[in-house]
Design brief:
Blueprint lengths: L3 E2 L2 H23 L4 E7 L3 H16 L3 E7 L5 H13 L5 E4 L9 H7 L11 H8 L8 H12 L8 E5 L6 H9 L13 E5 L6 H5 L4 E4 L17 E4 L3 E3 L2 E3 L4 H4 L5 E2 L6 H19 L5
Parallel strand pairs: 1-11, 2-3, 2-4, 5-6, 5-7, 7-8, 8-11
Antiparallel strand pairs: 9-10
Helix pairs in contact: 1-10, 2-10, 6-7, 6-10
The structure holds guanine (GUN).
């Protein structure tokens, strides 16, 4: 069996179109333009590309975007002061500090300085805690994009065995929580999975991943998930973006695994475009939440 390729780029295009329409309607009603402020510290080449693509997506959907740059050797206080200014600015609804930060900056301290209502990445402890308790405000963009992809493809996760490989704060942990929760923004079919989280020290990894009806690979190692680790017919979601020479490859050995899996996301063109689409979703939601009575 050859897997069905899940076209994340096309689904992200649908979501972006829906959000553009919704943004236009909300702007016409309220006279407010949702605005995302992106903060880029240094000139990390991949971060430059990601931030530019997020800004372009905002503009195409009718949202405003700002870019605030600080030099790689900036003082922590300069970044904290910039965030404090953006927190106070009523014209800014979402704040995104692009990661990774230079190593002299304390990531947790920086992310916790973003006002939770403007935290469109959903990295603040308050927003993470809300997801953990099953009462989310914002959902982190990559896991939310994956849930959207599954929902819009008609793949149910309720009652299924889900295995998440990777325990990062950005993808692995929130993905596991969202799949495990009793309900989701898209209904109970997109939640209620039985979830196992694996990581770099998991013993017998292949024995565990072979149990998975849904396998999410978010470990950051090129072609780490091989065909022998996948249950025939499984849904395989590849979150990895790794540069190997000139090529971008995922965390899954796509060519071999597509012969075993039932569904699989490609890299590029799978999960990546959905992450950007869900950032627009969160920015529009942030503008709405901050203007409930205006
Ligand atoms: N770096 C890699 N992914 C992300 C993301 O989703 N948000 C931010 N802020 N930085 C990232």
């Amino acid at each position: 069996m050859v897997a069905t390729i899940l076209d994340g780029k096309a689904i992200a295009g649908d979501i972006r179109k829906e959000l553009a329409d919704e943004t236009q309607a909300w702007k016409a009603k309220r006279g407010i333009t949702p605005c995302l402020a992106a903060v880029l510290v240094g000139d990390h080449p991949a971060s430059e590309v990601y931030v530019r693509s997020k800004q372009r997506a905002c503009e195409q959907a009718g949202l405003e975007s700002q870019l605030h740059r600080l030099p790689a050797d900036c003082r922590e206080i300069d970044l904290l002061e910039l965030i404090a200014r953006l927190n106070q600015d009523h014209a800014v609804h979402g704040i995104l500090v692009q990661l990774p930060l230079p190593s002299h900056l304390h990531e947790t301290k920086i992310l916790d300085a973003i006002h939770p209502m403007k935290d469109v990445d959903a990295f603040h402890a308050e927003n993470v805690g809300r997801i953990c308790q099953g009462r989310p405000r914002y959902l982190p963009c990559t896991p939310h994009g994956i849930v959207q992809l599954l929902h819009r493809t008609g793949i149910k996760v309720s009652g299924k065995q889900a295995v998440v490989v990777g325990r990062s704060d950005i993808v692995g942990k929130p993905m596991a929580m969202m799949l495990m929760n009793r309900d989701s923004t898209l209904g109970p079919n997109c939640a209620n999975a039985t979830v196992t989280v694996c990581h770099s020290r998991t013993a017998g990894l292949g024995d565990i991943t072979r149990q998975a009806d849904l396998l999410v690979a978010a470990i950051g190692k090129p072609r780490f998930v091989t065909a022998d680790m996948v249950k025939p017919g499984a849904v395989v979601i590849d979150v990895g973006i790794n540069r190997v020479g000139e090529q971008l490859v995922g965390d899954v050995d796509f060519e071999a695994v597509k012969e075993i899996a039932g569904h699989i996301t490609p890299v590029p063109g799978g999960v990546g475009p959905l992450t950007v689409a869900m950032l627009l979703y969160n920015t529009l939601l942030a503008a709405k939440l901050q203007n409930m009575s205006a």
